[in-house]
Prior knowledge:
With 167 residues, the protein is mainly alpha-helical. Helix content is 77%, strand content 5%. The protein is built from 6 helices and 2 strands, in the order H-E-H-H-H-H-E-H. The protein has a two-stranded parallel sheet with strand order 1-2. Mean pLDDT is 88; it is low at 1-9.
Amino acid sequence: xxxxxxxxxxxxxxxxxxxxxxxxxxxxxxxxxxxxxxxxxxxxxxxxxxxxxxxxxxxxxxxxxxxxxxxxxxxxxxxxxxxxxxxxxxxxxxxxxxxxxxxxxxxxxxxxxxxxxxxxxxxxxxxxxxxxxxxxxxxxxxxxxxxxxxxxxxxxxxxxxxxxxxx
Length: 167
């Protein structure tokens, strides 16, 4: 009888403890937003729009590597004028690559910023819906948490909710 009483007391105490503990969720806001279908569409459209620039960047990079390899391989047989010309070509290709890379980076950053602004309200609504559905008491930003068990991660739930709301 004492064993049963101790067992019932332990069960009651554990149920009381679990009833009082808050339900916690952790979210990586950037991952939730940029993991959504809308973000994937943004990336595809951006890549499509700037595909020629990316291709040109790759071509320039290949040409630059070829110049460097040739200069290293043939250094002993090239004249000073040929080496100056190769260096000049290499510098020109590097400058072109830098201009294209900066243009691509600026365009991507502007689109990401506009996307975040456009999706801010939807992200908030998705988080609220997941909080209500999961009966969460506390939701923390993953960037603010030093460590957490992945069981608390609600990022994929929020991304799924964003995708659901977009349809």
